[in-house]
Structures
1.
Amino acid sequence: MSREAVIARLQAGFDDGGFLDELARRVAYPTESQVAESFPHLERYLREEIGPELGTMGYEVRIIENPVEGGGPFLIARRIEGVGLPTVMTYGHGDALHGLAGQWRDGRDPWTLEVDGERVYGRGVVDNKGQHTINLRALKAVIAERGCLGFNSIFLMETSEEIGSPGIHELCAEYRDDLVGDVLIASDGPRIARDKPTLWLGSRGAINLDLRVRLREGGHHSGNWGGLLANPGVILANALAAIIDRNGRINARGIVPERITNSVRQALAGITVDPGPDGPTIDADYGEPGLTPTERVYGWNTFDVLAFRTGNPDNPVNAIPHEAVANCQIRYTVDRARETLVPALRAFLDKQGFPEVEVYEAPGRSAWGATRLDPDNPWVRWAAASIERTLGQAPAILPNIGASLPNDAFAEALGLATIYVPHSYPGCSQHAPNEHGLLPLFREGLAMMGGLFWDMGENPEPFRPGRGG
């Protein structure tokens, strides 16, 4: 019974194909939360796959209907081993993005696991089925080796993360007594680079906005009215150009931080954004001047235009359109309060002479808040030391990632210290055709999580720095 035995057990289960067999079974569930016809598969995934697995591990399992219409079900599983032991929450999401069947390389089926060299293809292999499968197997291995975990464990799984996690804040409020603990240890997203183990401690928030100019009812012949009628597409294009210039500098300064704090700058020093051989080339001169690429994506706010439409793009006609709409997004750090962003953008547009541009949050999209845990938090130091003990190298530590997820439900509503240990890499094609994981990172992830969960139970009292850290 030892730490080394847990890691050996996990890696043997990987080498004999057991991990891939389990992952293939889970990938086969077409859990597309954006597709109404797939909603039955969300419940099946919890009821047939995850729930029974946790049940065999001695967890009390409940599947809970989403309190918000349009959201998929939740699973809460609890294994309480003793009063006074630290309580660790683990989170994952069972839903995946659109399969995009027919767009995958070499005719691959998104719902069929396929191994090609060191790559493991399939929708959800990294986002998030592969990652929560690693963590489940690590917990199971510790129980098998020690006979117990040595700490209390809560496992929360949702099935609507890819549509903004509707209902998760309401769930955390209603079931707070069943979810509250000391620390969240979960896995999602990519490492900073393929060969660099990573911890990230929070996420940027995200707000989806629509900017609209609507000037009249219906279009009018461009030959008769061109030059006489204001064009909403032209007005909106100029408004967007006022907000952000061609090089990506945001001129609406009320929606960006005043500065990057010294603690964040120090944490990001020496960390390089590595897109990998299949990733896009970073545009070195795009974004906020004076910041490194790492600071721009992890320490700053961004404004992006996701879609722009005016007239009939698929079948243009000779008419001055009556309206134009831009679907935009702000990713933001904790340095700007969420509730200030839309008013700041509104005030900027008014000052620049664009009162006709409406600004409103996109309907039907949940907004995730920004979170950031201090890298000097005791839980972070403990987790980093455990990973270094396992792999022989210290992990990169990101105060927050550039992407977004519902971490505010855990960090704020439940008061947990939040630590994520990703098992993917930047070039994984997450959210795109050809999503894939890497065999070496899956195997390494099993070792890391086995070591972490073993260390948590080995001598739990020193690892209890206080609720929420």
Note: Residues 205-257+301-361 form a domain with the Alpha-Beta Plaits fold (CATH 3.30.70.360).
2.
Amino acid sequence: MNWMYSYFDQISATFGIKSTYLHVLFKALVVIAGTYIAWIILKRILFSFEKKTKDTEFVQDNQEFFSVIRKALFYGIMLVTGTYLIRLFQIYLVEKIFHALLIILLATPIKDLVLALMAYLENKIADKTKTKVDDIIFDLLRKFAGAVIYATAVILALDILGVNVMPFVAGAGVAGIAIGFAAKDTLSNLIAGVLLIIDRPFEIGDRIEVWSAPAGSATWGDVIDIGLRATKIKTTDNIVIIIPNNEIMKRDIVNYTILSTKIRVRVNIGIAYDADIKRAKDLIIKVAGAIEWVSKDPVPKVVVRMFGESSVNLQLRVWINDARKRMDTISYITDKVKEEFDKSGIEIPFPKRDITIINKTLTDGKTK
């Protein structure tokens, strides 16, 4: 190396150039060449590793993983080399700008790497669970991950440039409070959405009661989407009702399928006082037992609930294997029981009134 510096000194004396400049230029060229060689070696090592791991599940699910690593390594080498060259040429003013710019550039491969890891975890965790709510959580994390990483990069870059970020943070806090008051309903729905995800009173596919259904329409339906702001429920009339999450959290939630699809259905049936109760019970149980989706264990049961004004009120209690057939069960049993009662002469009562007309004869012989 000394002979090289001696050679530079001779050239400097010949052309009247300070030898220091040539020494600095030589160091810069050596660093650039060394950086290029190091980048080539790292690329080959990374390519070899990628080739050996291409059949692994993680690499197959994340095809862009090595592309992100290459980009991150490139920016890392640029950071080291650029910092050395800036200090070599003593351009200290550019150093902070260079560092701030590279931090912002590094935010992109970091975001891509985080998203790749999240996608891998989603395939390992969310796709193997029965609930669909985990998918919503990962979708939420994906949406906010990029914003958080870029915001952090900008704050770090401004701090390196010597900009006091505290006023911006304080201003953002005040603006956040103002926005919070202006959009309190939206924020309330967002918070309620997060609580729904955590508490899980229902999941996508569950059948629940709908209290806000249009008058005269079906009052229950299946959950088809749980969003951060609202939940979508499709009723049995094929109507989609979008309910704000804040409203859902204020109500009692009736979930028919949270434990299992098997539920008990009660059907009220009235018979006349002079009807044969035992015969009526047998006919009702016969009708219920003929339905294919009715559970055989426990068996259908008929009880006498009360004595009405004009009827003996019976109640059929029957378990069905599919909660979604609740209304079909009630309709079918009511229809068939009416047919069986008509065949057997069992009267289904209706209100009756006996009117008695009394004629009174007055003392003058006139009828009142």
Note: The radius of gyration is 40 Å.
3.
Amino acid sequence: MPYKKKIGLFTMPLGTNYGGIIQLVALQGFLTQNGYETVIIDRKYPVSVFKRLVKHFIEKNGIFDLKDIAYQKEIASEINGFKNKHFKAITRPLYTNTKLTKEVQEQNFDVIVVGSDQVWRIDYMHGIWKNAFLDFVKNTSTKKISYAASFGKEKWEFDEFSNEITAFLREFDAVSVREDSGVKICEEYLQLSTAQHVLDPTLLMGADFYYQISQTSANSKKNEIFAYILDVDAHAENIIKEAETSLQKTAYVIDDPKRINRHKKIKGYKKPGVEEWLKGFMEADFVVTDSFHGTIFSIIFNKPFITLANKKRGMTRFWSLLEKLELENRLVYRDRDFDRKLFFQKIDYTTVNNKIEVWRDFSKSFLINAIEN
């Protein structure tokens, strides 16, 4: 059966971020299930920017010297294997605007969808933010749609770009954002009153989808506390210890370079695969995380969890999701007293799942209607 339409998917440059990868797999999976051909547009940061980001990562984590950059491929091998297996179609790596524009013209897409993740957070896009507003699409017959695009912050901080972005968004056929604060930004700063608040792509798919794509993982950490922490600090360490003591269980901490490489054993280290990351949520008795997608997958697999407020990476996405599902009490702030009863307080997942289902139906309808109409 022939595909209905050919859709290009544009998101933040793909690295080893679990959430960024899995949201794209979910979006591609949903569109494929609905009869569309999808191709991921593999936009890379310019080489100079990439080198600067790698240097920053190395210096921040204090793991190894610049001479060890050669091991980056080895570190990412498990995750790259997942991407090679689950990305159904992807362009060649595109490091320049010229190559990006040419590739998109050659692909002759019917539709290009930008999103999700913090693709509209200008300070995260390192010089390619205009691409996130699809400035490279020259074919006027190609539909432009944003799905669950995120500004990352509650308040708009880029007034100097507002007029330019307003002009870009006027060329969009449909706009949706991931947070309710994004709707307000569109209305108040970008002269757009029609933006819709939709689900993150990962929530378009049910738990069965993720069980299927993680079944090859042999790792098993059943009946433990799963800790997925992006920014390890004393507060996070203390919460994990409190969870271990209260629940009388051992914490399995995944993807913490400072722990794993405490003795500078970088050679031979591989970042855990996406399958192992997913299984951490599936098989846990309790989850501690400061990650947005860590929070989402705790909810997808109906796990009791605590989310540590991560103000540095943006709080609006946490508020927007948890308030909608009436789970605000699961958010723990570093500067406030922590109620240890949360370790034992059950979550009414029947109610939560019903709320998600209503929101999911709306989000699916938005995307399909935007593509077809």
Note: Residues 260-264 have pLDDT under 50 and may be disordered.
4.
Amino acid sequence: MSIKHVISVSGGKDSAATLLLAIERFGKANLVPIFCDTGNEHQAVYDYLVYMESALGITITRLRANFDAEIAAKRKFIACDKRTRREYETALVFDVNGEPVPKRDGRGNIITRKVKRDGQEIDEPVQKTRKIGGGRRVRWSNKGKRRALELLLPTGNPFLDLCMWKGRFPSRKAQFCTEELKRNPAVEFQMALVDAGHTVVSWQGIRRDESQNRRNAKKFETVGGGLYIFRPIVEWTALQVFEYCASQGVKPNPLYLQGMGRVGCMPCINANKAELKQIADRFPEHVERIHAWELLVGTVSKRQAATFIPAPGITPAQAVDHGIYAVIDWARTTRGGKQRDLLAILDDHSGCSSSYGLCDQASHELEVA
């Protein structure tokens, strides 16, 4: 039984350092680098993978999620939808003295729920609510069905097909893109190796200082069934990552020199204001693509509205004011979002820009050369 070291490569700095560590420790024979293609990538990422393959003498296996079956099932559901119930907005009920009215069951008993107050678990009455308005039908309208079924077809792009299937774009609270486009294809690939009789060590380029969600990430985990997880740079900083890659003669992804704090999805739903502005100024074609996706996903969704940067509860008419172009307009404003950043307008964004201080390093390397 052999050990397969599967290294998840994203085209970014952390996965590059992880791959280099794996090569340094175990050589190339038992390494299986994989790249999960989301379909929402910048061309520079694909080019960087080719560069790494050439520079390191390796082959990176490309994986892509497929949602053809899910879209087919949704088409069938929409076409056959005959639900009759309605959904209502609700409001809390208070008595004449402004006190909350408790909710009761069919026998008149007060309904309670367990909650923690001051460290103690108690039974708290559930407040009664009332319906507001006439509600809305849960069932797809015939007009909505026709509109959705005409366009709800697989495109071959994993990110777009996922959003069309879900009827919305991912968000910080519902970040299903990571699970569906990266984690699931990688796990499926690794489990196939386990089923073939191999022990698999999954190498992940995760650092604790990246985010609050990763502050407790473990360096090594036993999943079970012949699958293990290893995070060799979990205690590193971003600076250590760049320094290590440079010491191994590997250049950073050029997107890091063009104002990007992260590489991968272009843009990522978690992109900050500065990154969105850099993307709009340097790569306007990506903004145009996202706008086209907003129109398509909105058309095939039940609500008939979808925005790349989440705007919950908006109507189709409001979607234009909350779409990607509106977000980019906001990204070009100063703090507070009301006034244009006049200094930024003068910047043509043709030069180097790095949030990691890589521009000085790049200039020094050019001078030495």
Note: The radius of gyration is 25 Å.
